[in-house]
């Protein structure tokens, strides 16, 4: 796939230009193709001096020097900043493009690989353009020679002038035809690039959606597993008289979805840890609206609350329970204060069987 369509570039001045790729700014010296690697390292939170201190980096610099037949200092230069913001933007260490790819690999292997592909493609395009220019130059030289020859033959005749005109017209027609063919070819290449990018983007979007859904399912499974483990633990380890009054039932609402609630059943000594763990599970989007000491087992209190909600005709259609989470569906005026009052009323009746009549909430 051709990658240049994902790259934006503009000239900073007659010597330097800015290339933006994958949200990374790359500054290039147009005179020699050297790249400002200080800027690249900074954007990845790294320092160039750490790269230079690596043995592998030193060996690579020696290797490139030997291949290029130049000293290591000839493959890089330092541009100092000045007082102006413009000079500050350009300052840094500029190195040969091959070394820049090596530094980019060190900063981020994925980004470095893409940069390598871009540079290779850029070189190929430059070579291709150079061949086209050379071909045009050769054609112009050939035409010039032909014209000179014809001028020598038909120096003073009208036929000479006519032949020159016809030859020039033929050349213009050929050049126009060649430009049209090149334009068609570039349009086709551009269309193929756009199609490839669209396909790749669609694939990445689908992959991201699948991974997001999978992560959500895993989080739900972990949350449900933790709740089940807690339920089993509460069933196996029955509270005794010494710790019964330390049992806590905490009610939390979701800040982004106020109609959704989460219940925590814990002991007082573990209350803060339990709330913190639940906050991490929901990305700190929970708010405590009630914390009640319960004489009965918190699970018993929560079960009595669910039983009441499901046995009350005017409330049952508007509530949905999923283990220790429940949601109040639109269509009822039940508020946070109503829920708190209902929990407190059920707790006060803990020593008695749950009444068959719905509990009245005082307004």
For the largest beta-sheet, the strand count, sense and barrel status come to: 5 strands, antiparallel
Beta-strand portion reads 15-25%
CATH architecture of the largest domain: Roll
Class computed from helices, strands and strand pairing: alpha+beta
Distance between the termini: 67 Å
Rg is 38 Å
Number of helices: 10
CATH class (first level) name of the largest domain: Alpha Beta
Number of domains: 3
- What percentage of residues falls in helices of 4 or more residues? 55-70%
The name CATH uses for the topology of the largest domain is: Mlu1-box Binding Protein, DNA-binding Domain
Average pLDDT, to the nearest integer? 82
The total beta strand count reads 11
What order do the strands of the largest sheet run in, or round the barrel if closed? 9-7-8-11-10
Taken in chain order, the helices and strands follow as EEEEHHHEHEHHHEEHEHEEH
- Poorly predicted regions: 1-5, 353-363
Q: What is the global morphology?
A: elongated
Summarize the structure.
With 363 residues, the protein is of the alpha+beta class. The chain has 10 helices and 11 strands. The protein folds into 3 domains: 123 residues, Roll (Mlu1-box Binding Protein, DNA-binding Domain); 84 residues; 105 residues, no CATH class.
Explain what you see.
- With about 375 residues, the protein is an alpha+beta fold.
- The chain folds into three domains: about 5-125, Mlu1-box Binding Protein, DNA-binding Domain (Roll); about 155-235; about 245-350, no CATH class.
- The protein has helices at about 35-45, 50, 55-70, 85-90, 95-105, 110-155, 160-235, 270-280, 300-310, 335-350; strands spanning about 5-10, 15-20, 25-30, 35, 75-80, 90-95, 245-255, 260-265, 285-295, 320, 325-330.
- GO terms for molecular function: DNA binding.
- This is KilA-N domain-containing protein.
- Pfam families: DUF3627, KilA-N.
- It comes from viral metagenome.
């Amino acid at each position: 796939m051709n990658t240049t369509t994902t790259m934006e570039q503009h000239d900073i001045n007659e010597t330097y230009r800015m290339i933006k790729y994958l949200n990374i700014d790359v500054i290039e010296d147009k005179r020699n193709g050297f790249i400002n690697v200080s800027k690249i390292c900074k954007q990845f939170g790294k320092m160039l001096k750490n790269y230079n201190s690596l043995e592998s980096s030193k060996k690579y610099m020696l290797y490139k020097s030997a291949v290029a037949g130049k000293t290591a200092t000839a493959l890089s230069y330092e541009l100092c900043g000045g007082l102006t913001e413009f000079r500050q933007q350009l300052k840094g260490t500029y190195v040969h493009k091959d070394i820049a790819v090596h530094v980019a690999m060190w900063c981020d292997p994925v980004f470095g690989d893409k940069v390598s592909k871009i540079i290779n493609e850029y070189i190929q395009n430059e070579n291709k353009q150079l061949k086209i220019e050379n071909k045009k130059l050769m054609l112009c030289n050939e035409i010039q020679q032909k014209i000179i020859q014809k001028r020598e033959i038909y120096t003073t005749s009208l036929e000479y002038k006519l032949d020159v005109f016809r030859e020039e017209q033929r050349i213009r027609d050929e050049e126009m035809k060649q430009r049209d063919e090149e334009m068609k070819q570039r349009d086709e290449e551009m269309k193929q690039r756009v199609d490839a990018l669209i396909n790749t983007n669609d694939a990445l979007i689908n992959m991201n959606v699948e991974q997001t859904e999978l992560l959500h399912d895993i989080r739900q499974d972990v949350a449900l597993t933790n709740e089940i483990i807690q339920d089993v633990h509460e069933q196996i380890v029955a509270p005794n008289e010494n710790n019964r009054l330390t049992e806590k039932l905490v009610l939390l609402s979701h800040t982004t979805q106020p109609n959704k609630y989460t219940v925590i059943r814990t002991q007082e000594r573990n209350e803060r840890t339990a709330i913190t763990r639940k906050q991490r599970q929901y990305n700190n989007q929970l708010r405590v609206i009630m914390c009640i000491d319960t004489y009965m087992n918190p699970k018993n209190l929560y079960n009595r609350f669910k039983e009441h909600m499901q046995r009350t005709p005017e409330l049952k259609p508007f509530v949905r329970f999923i283990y220790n989470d429940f949601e109040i569906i639109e269509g009822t005026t039940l508020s946070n204060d109503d829920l708190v009052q209902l929990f407190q009323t059920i707790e006060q009746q803990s020593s008695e069987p749950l009444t068959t009549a719905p509990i009245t909430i005082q307004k």
